[in-house]
TrEMBL record:
This is DUF4179 domain-containing protein. It holds the Pfam family DUF4179. Residues 39-126 form the DUF4179 domain. The lineage of its organism: Bacteria, Bacillati, Bacillota, Bacilli, Bacillales. Keywords: Membrane, Transmembrane, Transmembrane helix. The chain crosses the membrane at residues 46-63.
Length: 422
């Protein structure tokens, strides 16, 4: 196997673990639509006057954007947790009265929303007297309005005992404070395999009363990891969410999913709930944003801790493939089980299992003096909390041992960064 083939095999294993979010297609399509045409134009003088007038309008508009809604949403207590529940108790929601009738007779009712500079949260109910399908025929796409094209991010729901009413919450990217009317775009699957039907629902939005309060602070600190560095640039806190942004230059960042789960935000020593992470890559590098719950009031000490992240070590380990039993082999404290070794028409297949965070590199089998590198990964499943893989080697000779050169894994780092809260 050439070096190029080996890299293809490793990438196949890695990509097999990656799941694209449902909203990825919409985001990519819209990003391409935003690519400007390569035309050079000289703006006339009147444009500068318009820009100056617009700037003055922006300043005046934002001045009023520090009030709050005065409406408590009822019936969503089961799906509201933490900060959003507290905001609802404080009456910081806004009602929406809009309905979408779907092809199968079910009804989607938009009930209410919260909005600040970090996110837009939509509350809705989905009802059908004959029973609600737990795989609903609709999917949220985006919310549009003036200077607004906010994509769906994540959601949750609960079902009543009769299974006739689904109560849900869907988050979107933040909307512009300049929008006075918003339009929700959602797709409905009318017939399986056919084009989706798009629905548009418009409702008023009062940006002067939205929760636009925010706090920003520069961080500009770097943490070194085994194969690169993480640079934390800034923190932004709003009433509903705390966001940390930065740049990423780590060669093996995506060798296991959830690498940023080990980055903690501590407020007065207590962890803030981690709500997810996103990474964007382009020709000049990768950027990331980490989402946490809102900061508590009056916080005095704020700290960012990289407890764990992706690590790498050279292991140069040899694992016997004869006289197999159920006991694991320890490779630098990481368990590796050899489930089966068999000769097939395709070659030698070796079934192994490791913890989820372990990804092996430079794998080969040995038969006497002969060494055969990994050809491809045939299959990968999760069995009893372990990641089980079937490896194929191009050989017709039963091997004596499995050789592993290196290992990517979740490593403890413990680096901490103090954030100025004044």
């Amino acid at each position: 196997m050439t070096e190029l083939e080996k890299r293809f095999t490793e990438e196949k294993e890695r990509l097999g673990e990656v799941k694209a979010p449902d909203e990825l297609e919409d985001r990519l399509r819209k990003a391409l639509e935003k690519v400007p045409e390569r035309k050079r134009k000289v703006a006339p003088k009147w444009v500068a006057a318009v820009v100056a007038l617009l700037f003055l309008s922006i300043v005046g508009y934002n001045y009023n954007a520090f009030a709050y809604y005065g409406k408590k949403l009822l019936g969503f207590e089961d799906i509201m947790t933490g900060t959003l529940s507290d905001l609802n108790e404080a009456g910081m929601g806004q009602s929406i009265d809009a309905t979408v009738m779907l092809h199968d007779g079910s009804q989607l009712q938009l009930e209410g929303m919260y909005s600040d500079k970090s996110q837009f949260v939509l509350y809705y109910t989905f009802t059908n007297p004959g029973g609600v399908d737990l795989d609903p025929p609709y999917s949220f796409r985006s919310i549009t309005g003036v200077l607004t094209n906010s994509f769906a991010v994540s959601g949750t729901w609960s079902l009543n005992d009769e299974e006739t009413k689904l109560t849900g919450m869907q988050t979107f990217d933040a909307v512009s404070p300049f929008a006075k009317n918003l339009t929700l775009h959602l797709f409905e699957e009318v017939e399986e395999g056919q084009a989706m039907k798009e629905h548009e629902v418009s409702f008023p939005f009062n940006p002067n009363e939205a929760m636009q309060t925010e706090w920003k602070q520069s961080i500009k600190k770097t943490v070194q990891v085994d194969q690169g560095m993480i640079r934390f640039d800034a923190i932004t806190a709003t009433p509903s969410r705390t966001t940390i942004t930065g740049k990423l230059k780590v060669d093996n960042y995506d060798r296991y999913t959830g690498a940023f789960d080990g980055v903690e935000l501590l407020a007065d020593g207590k962890p803030i709930d981690n709500q997810g992470a996103g990474v964007s890559s382009s020709w000049n590098g990768s950027t990331f944003d980490l989402s946490f719950d809102a900061l508590p009031e009056g916080v005095k000490d704020l700290k960012l801790v990289v407890s764990t992240f992706v690590g790498y070590m050279d292991v140069d380990a040899t694992v016997p493939l004869v006289d197999l039993n159920e006991d694991p082999v320890l490779i630098h404290e990481k368990e590796l089980f050899v489930r089966q070794v068999e000769k097939t028409e395709k070659g030698i297949q070796v079934t192994i299992a490791t913890a989820d965070d372990v990804m092996l590199e430079g794998v080969s089998i040995q038969a006497g003096e002969r060494s055969v590198p990994l050809k491809t990964l045939l299959r990968q499943d999760h069995v009893d909390d372990y990641k089980e893989r079937i490896l194929l080697f191009e050989s017709d000779e039963m091997p004596d041992a499995l050789h592993i050169k290196g290992m990517h894994y979740k490593k403890s780092y413990g680096d901490s960064i103090k954030i100025n809260v004044k």
